[in-house]
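lol forgot to send this yesterday, sorry. struct tokens for the thing we talked abt
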């Protein structure tokens, strides 16, 4: 965790290094803070939600997402070629903000450049916590542990058998999220030109899956991903989850993890 903390501190102090000609950069953004009072369906205070509840951003969350977008435009203006997003509106707001911030920055003193198109993928949707009344959605931590035993949330995070957790929460274990996320991430890497970057705007558990692989952290609970934070990872040519797991390609280079830009006073 000390190495992770140093990455976060370093990212706040210096602009990221240029992308190597033989690498591809991913810029990972978690959505901003949400307003669960306006969720559809509604979620009680302290209740868990995930990829099956479309919770909107709060005003604070919108400001956070705009700050992240402006930071990306400042640090990665000439690099970004693709923007991918979860289909959930809390992520889409941030993805469209990134596209707009890049377009505005590129057009200063020149002809207007339209924003990059945002492509959405179900694989980047937040964890499925199961249906209300059967799964964990709308339950508090205390209610979950009263129903499924102490340490239920840790067992979810450390689950390694695909599909096994559906019998417990009606949804996913972390291994299920990780599999779908890394498969779609690999597809994105193939579409990014070498020496360029792509942006993924998604959720905490989606980002934990990608960052955890890169830093070698098997327990996602040890990977802190604040709202509207930015994580930057460079991948060598030929990288894929399967090749990396087999030791058949070099490791990715982690530039920063969980850097949260300061929200300006407007």
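and heres what i got for the seq, position by position
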């Amino acid at each position: 965790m000390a190495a992770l903390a140093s990455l976060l501190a370093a990212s706040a102090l210096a602009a990221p290094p240029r992308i190597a000609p033989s690498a591809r950069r991913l810029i990972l953004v978690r959505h901003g803070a949400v307003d669960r009072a306006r969720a559809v369906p509604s979620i009680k205070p302290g209740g868990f939600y995930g990829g099956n509840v479309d919770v909107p951003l709060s005003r604070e969350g919108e400001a956070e997402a705009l700050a992240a977008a402006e930071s990306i435009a400042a640090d990665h203006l000439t690099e970004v070629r693709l923007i991918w997003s979860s289909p959930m509106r809390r992520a889409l707001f941030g993805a469209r903000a990134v596209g707009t911030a890049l377009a505005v920055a590129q057009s200063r003193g020149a002809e207007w450049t339209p924003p990059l198109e945002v492509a959405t993928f179900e694989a980047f949707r937040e964890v499925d916590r199961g249906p209300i009344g059967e799964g964990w959605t709308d339950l508090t931590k205390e209610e979950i542990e009263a129903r499924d035993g102490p340490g239920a949330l840790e067992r979810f995070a450390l689950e390694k058998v695909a599909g096994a957790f559906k019998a417990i929460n009606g949804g996913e274990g972390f291994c299920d999220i990780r599999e779908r996320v890394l498969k779609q991430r690999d597809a994105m890497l193939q579409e990014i030109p070498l020496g360029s970057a792509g942006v993924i705007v998604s959720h905490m558990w989606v980002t934990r899956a990608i960052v955890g692989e890169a830093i070698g952290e098997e327990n996602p609970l040890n990977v802190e991903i604040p709202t509207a934070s930015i994580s930057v990872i460079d991948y060598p040519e030929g990288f894929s989850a399967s090749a990396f797991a087999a030791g058949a390609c070099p490791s990715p280079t982690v530039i920063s993890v969980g850097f949260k830009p300061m929200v300006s006073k407007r």
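The chain has a mean pLDDT of 93. anyway ping me if u want another try
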